[in-house]
Predict the structure.
Amino acid sequence: MNTQSLNVSRDIIKKDDGFLAYYFSAQAAYQIVRVAARTRLTPNMFTTASLVLGVAAAFSAAHAQFIYAIILLNISFIFDCCDGQLARAKGLSSSMGHWFDYHSDKIKDVLILLGFALGYVNGYEHRMWILIPAFIAISFQFMRNITTLNRDVFALQHTGKKDEVHAVLPTYTSSQLLKTLKNSSLFKLSDRVLLYTIFGALHKIEIGIILYACVDTAYAFASAYLNYRVFYKHDKKEDEKHSTL
């Protein structure tokens, strides 16, 4: 591929993403990718850089350096947007790249949450209680991921495509703002980054962690209920088929 003549279209910007991701991080990432597309840089390099910066953000947060943590976290997320955009721009999408990106996001998610929780404690024993909502947030985030994955696998096996998005706002809309708000209502990674940014800057990170735990708990139970409904309906149909034989 002649990267010198590569024309980078704005179509590489992911439309189905959260508010922070689409309107800020992805736009900054696009400017970087316009240059990176003409170099030998690869998507996995940006994923690696995002992971390293995410770990650095967690380390800064654990030492109560919240402003540094927020800056590093947002740069990390911009690079996280870069990998997908660069893959689309250069036609370098791969299963390995998707796997690496997905799992690095999960690692950052856990480490950053723990980092902010430890930073809030910062040697004050009476603040140790924050580790409880942090543990709840991590546990239910894991539960939510597993139940969503179960639905996707089930849907792929029976329909050939992943499960549809379950959101409060309309799924199909021509408004980009509504699309971003719909995705933000799912409390994606970009929304958690925004949560850390707001409450970390206000030095009220404990409120952010509690909100994280509450939202994740609600979504985890909602996701588990969706699984119950999907699997129950499937089993009921199977029973009806067998009863007519």
The longest helix spans residues 205-244. Residues 1-5 have pLDDT under 50 and may be disordered. Residues 37 and 110 are 31 Å apart (CA to CA). The domain at 3-244 is CATH 1.20.120.1760 (Four Helix Bundle (Hemerythrin (Met), subunit A)).
